[in-house]
Design a protein that fits this description.
alpha+beta, two-stranded antiparallel sheet, 9 strands, globular
């Protein structure tokens, strides 16, 4: 069941995709069910999202979540263990704290 405002766009790898048509790396489609939470909090060093839908968390039809956040630089990624099919994003702590509260309701 959809609740709250309707999704208008999602940014994946720097481009806008329709929220119900998010392609996965294996060619399957991941359907976004609803936006769980969007934050206005800044990233580290006061950086902010310039337009778009970030930072935010979306629920999918697969029982998983999409997290929209700031992509890390190559230098930042080198400090984190990341599998070839994964990526790392920075999100404000407020986004995750609010998500936990919403999921506990």
């Amino acid at each position: 069941m959809l609740s709250g405002r309707l999704l208008t766009m999602i940014y994946i790898e720097g481009r806008v995709v329709r929220p119900r048509e998010v392609a996965m790396s294996n060619g399957t489609m991941l359907n976004v069910v609803k936006e769980i939470h969007r934050s206005n909090a800044p990233y580290s060093h006061g950086r902010r999202c310039v337009g778009g839908g970030c930072p935010a968390v979306y629920e999918t039809d697969q029982g998983t979540y999409l997290v929209v956040g700031r992509r890390l630089s190559a230098e930042e990624k080198a400090k984190v263990s990341i599998d070839a099919i994964e990526d790392a994003l920075e999100v404000p702590a407020e986004l995750l704290a609010s998500l936990v509260k919403k999921l506990q309701q």
